[in-house]
């Protein structure tokens, strides 16, 4: 066994030990995290659920003991511990909000302009997990969530501007001390003005930040659970106007020790956002999880710290957005809330400017001309191809020049087949003498890359495409399945996307047309244009139909353009004559060419020395 083999086995052993250690540590961390999450979840459960785990007096207990128990559990809000639930509704054309006096909070939120993928009413919030309330400290290190007690409701009021409002008040045993929530649903808007009023509460809450607990759950709304979970995120913007986010995972937490302007619980196409309109939230403690459920996308439990100063009368205004992730709607709020839409992230974050300055304005303009989104995407594709037409033409001209030089390159390749360094040097001399830039065909393709990546971000994020049908695609925002297998094929999926198949076929045809541009002596370069589309087949099979339809159209237009340009526009004889004329002209080397040639000579000398 040689030294390299020994080193290889040692490294493999180290990797194995490291992997086992990491797995054990991850398992231990998971147990600790589960215990912590269970503790937090129990704290935020409604009182009825907590009662199952807390020993309480039975019906035979003396009345005095029951009174003492209620006082211990509810403190100054004992009178609000029991009551009958009553609901009220605020509604406009966009949203319907059902409020309950149990916690004085929204119980159900329906977006009226949208349906779920199953055709049912789209409920942005429903179910007992969704709750919000103030954490009130009680004696004996206990606490109460106001979501567990009954508020006194006011009447629904309708205002001249079309807005509607309602208030809920929670008094202590002293009527001069109370917590009050007021809600106003604006006319023709997804926004709710929500104000927390604390009157005479300094003796109960103290002069410190008030803990406001906000729990919410995102239920399955779309066809593809995997895509929904990839887009289920928490976003926030701090007082320095810095935006950040994280995607919900099996169990995650984030402590934000900074002032926050807003925090948003984002789904794939919708979001709930709390915006501090006067003072910022002092900080936030975020806990999230992804349950093992076929209908629940994700859950979050967030504690927002409100900067209460102990004043006798204190108000904290919040604006709550319940609505779609529509770029123009979010941007109009002037809080940079549109940043929650993924128009370009990571190393390709710069493409968001392509989307913002070019794609979205053109898409919206075309949307004003027709409601057929298949036609809109076709027109958008043609527009983009017109923009990049000069680069496309230069690419085809470069391809034609390389085709003319191919016989001479083949001769050089045969002459220097055993000396790649010499072949490279002679190849550069040929290109220079012929006035050909070997990168002429690559640079236009690189310049087109931002457009391709921008489309990759734009289409899956565009709510305008949600549940819009075209041809066989029932929903352009998700994959167009024409056949479901009933089982999953590794690296492919459980269905056949026809637009993805058409995209792949046209990509192969385009690769065949461009085969002359590849180095035929290099197997990798020769076959990669054919292998690459097949490799992408499994990835794009689950992408939005709008995206694969766009790539298919782009390929078709490229094939047609290439055929027209090479057949009717580019004159190969003229190009050949121009190349020959360039060869007779005195050549001047650029500094880059001189450095490249000098580097190649040094490499050739090194190789000759090694052979000796």
TrEMBL record:
Membrane topology: Multi-pass membrane protein
Matches recorded under Pfam families: 60KD_IMP, YidC_periplas
Record keywords, A-Z: Cell membrane, Chaperone, Membrane, Protein transport, Transmembrane, Transmembrane helix, Transport
Gene3D superfamilies the UniProt entry points to: 2.70.98.90
Cell compartments where the protein resides: Cell inner membrane; Cell membrane
Principal location: membrane
Tree of life domain: Bacteria
Cross-referenced NCBIfam families: PRK01318.2-3 (NF002356), yidC_nterm (TIGR03593), yidC_oxa1_cterm (TIGR03592)
Full protein name: Membrane protein insertase YidC
Annotated source species: Chitinophaga pollutisoli
The organism's taxonomic lineage, starting at the top: Bacteria, Pseudomonadati, Bacteroidota, Chitinophagia, Chitinophagales
Gene that encodes it: yidC
